Amino acid sequence: MAMAGLYRRLLPSPPAIDFASSEGKQIFVEAIHSGTMENFYRLISYFQTQSEPAYCGLASLSMVLNALAIDPGRKWKGPWRWFDESMLDCCEPLEKVKARGITFGKVVCLAHCAGAKVEAFRTNQSTINDFRRYVMKCSTSDDCHVISSYNRAIFKQTGTGHFSPIGGYHAGKDMALILDVARFKYPPHWVPLKLLWEAMDDVDETTGQHRGFMLISRPHREPGLLYTLSCKHESWVGIAKYLMDDVPLLLKSEDMKDIQKVLSVVCTSLPSNFEEFIKWVAEVRIREDGGQSLSSEEKARVVIKEEVLKQVQNTGLFQHVAAFLSSANSCCKNLTASGDGENLPKIAASVCCQGAQILAGKFGFSESECYCCRETCVKCLQANGDKPITVVCGTVVNGNTEQGVDMLVPSSQTTHSCCCTGSRNYIGMHPAGNDVLTALLLALPPETWSGIKEEKLLQEILSLVSTEKLPILLQEEVLHLRRQLHLLKRCQENKVDEVLGAPLFS
Length: 506
Known about the structure:
Elements: E1 17-18, H1 22-33, H2 40-45, H3 56-67, E2 75-77, E3 80-81, H4 94-100, H5 104-113, E4 117-122, H6 128-139, E5 144-151, E6 161-170, E7 175-178, E8 189-192, H7 193-200, E9 203-204, E10 209-210, E11 212-217, E12 227-229, H8 236-253, H9 259-268, E13 278-280, E14 283-286, H10 287-290, H11 296-313, H12 316-326, H13 344-359, E15 371-381, E16 389-398, E17 401-408, E18 419-420, H14 433-443, H15 455-465, H16 472-492
Antiparallel strand pairs: 1-8, 2-3, 4-11, 5-6, 5-11, 6-7, 7-8, 9-10, 12-13, 14-17, 15-16, 15-18, 16-17
Helix pairs in contact: 3-5, 5-16, 8-16, 9-12, 12-14, 14-16
């Protein structure tokens, strides 16, 4: 029996010109000589086909993020960090995108969440001259890229709303190269820029908003080097709501006299799975590959993580949080107060099992796949004669196989010595509950505390949580977490299509 299906579409030409046609090649060569194809090379290196018919927005964004060499900060498959459509889920569940596609505002939200610098414009908030200027800007460099949201019907193509990156520009013919991520349907093609503007100047029926374009570039520093908010856990919406909506109301309704009471009020109603919401990021590697030395990249990442951790612990707020969590009446028992020797064996075993699971490409335990850490040890590896880096080494057993795993751990200590898991001398060897809670409290919006009635206490709190005097690394880390919180709140309120810009904080 014959199998029904579709194999590609004939590209309507005009108005489009197939990139691989004789005319398309000639336009390409001329644009190269004019210097307006500089962004093409990086984009074509990471050109991908959307994996689902409705994933054009996700494929366009992951392609651009990889072209900009932005580190996603979490694993894709095996040990590799890499942007893939399946990882772009913080602003809209993938199942919804698969069924209905994604709106312009939510793609912008995803780009912000991924740590990119984004400038987004709807056509009713911009002009064709602005658009041409931005296309020219990105076509003459490789440090920014344009993603266009447009209606295919203007080009006589089948379908309606679509996303794709712009891979170059021919100034003389005023034509843009669309690197269509639906490569199963249409090949890359040149279109008149004026017609592309008309295709973007269309109202999306889903939102009632105009389509448009976004400029995506690399931030001056990778955000979230040590801390990040996890949107993978199903309860993130509730936790974000508690932090952004409930905490200010609780502080307003309670009569507080000191910092410890403030912390108690904030922590009393913390969701039980709060630890799943904010994560600290370690590096994992296969021991046989890693050897006993560190690469310059590994060393640089861990050194910055350690500096951020040290800066957290030097804040005045940290001292109050540490005292509160260690107090007998602390209500945050679900948070580990310190990373001391009592907890090190459990932490090391868990970390190594997690690392082995990730390296094997496994993301969920089953009864038939039981990972057990047979032994762990904390060591110090030298990095070209510099300060030693703390490494949790483990031998993980899964059935009849063994895997040696190293986890490079950010540490706030200045000196270490090799030691097995029984040691009790590793207080502060990794971001513990007091560090994590301090970072998240710093990330709460300043208006969170405005309901505190006691003026002296309010001023003390505002001084403790102020970002203005924080060292630059910690300041950027905290502001990144704060932006993530605001973006999650927009998602919760379904407002990401109304406000396109990233939250701005001083």
